[in-house]
Predict the 3D structure of the following.
Amino acid sequence: MKVLVFGSLNIDMVFSVDHIAAPGETISSASLVKSAGGKGANQAAALAKAGMAVYMAGKIGKDGLFLTELLRSYGVNTDHVKVYDGATGQAIIQVDREGQNSIVLFSGGNHAIEQGEIGPILDNFERGDIVVLQNEIVHTGKIMEAAKKRELRICLNPSPYDEKIEGLPLDLVDMFFVNELEGSALVGMTEAGPPETVLNALVSRFPGAEIILTLGKRGGRYGRAAVRAGGEIVDLPVVDTTGAGDTFTGYFIAARARGGNVSGALAIACRASSIAVSRKGAMESIPLAMEVFP
């Protein structure tokens, strides 16, 4: 089984601050670190570190060539990452003393992907392979439709959540990865509802899909039809939450692909994301399989 992550590649500019800047406030940063990021690239790194055969598709400028070099060092195939005459996507990230973050995105190459590039990339995959998507690139709906025609399995992390999500062919999704806010928005709630209420509503709206609801410090929950399962985090110091959800996504998919049951996959994903938040950085903080799998 092969996994294609068709998604974003970003250059992260991470500022370490005492607290997240409020509107109109100017604060100083204790440090600035330039690193590799983007939800797509982070998830590809997590899948590769978890031992999967992973392919990355997306678009970068020449300023982002170090991203593909880093991904390849983790074992990700980057043959489908196109280089164009423009800027790579950027993320301005504030990380406070508690490890929480605030992120501003500039799309760059993530919004320069052309529809004509989609088919030739997907033609390299076959029935039963997995395509992992987020909401940081253009033409996500077209990718979903083309992937389903080729009988690929679709995993969607609708993040960052915005009005474009409801315009996607969500009935094609086989597996959703959502946090409380994203899950609540998908079922029409204006604010985050109780986890079990949100999970049940998502299962009702998408009866053919697997729903994975991530809850931060409270772990994760799973729902499909009448099946419910939960996983708890490992109690480790929180240093930086950037990339925690991407780590969870990658390791859950990998654990299931290895034949693990839902409860076991949740435990693995929670363990991996707990380790990730105990370290600085996004892609670099993701643990290796030997640190996570029993």
Observations:
- The chain has one domain: 2-9+38-88+111-292.
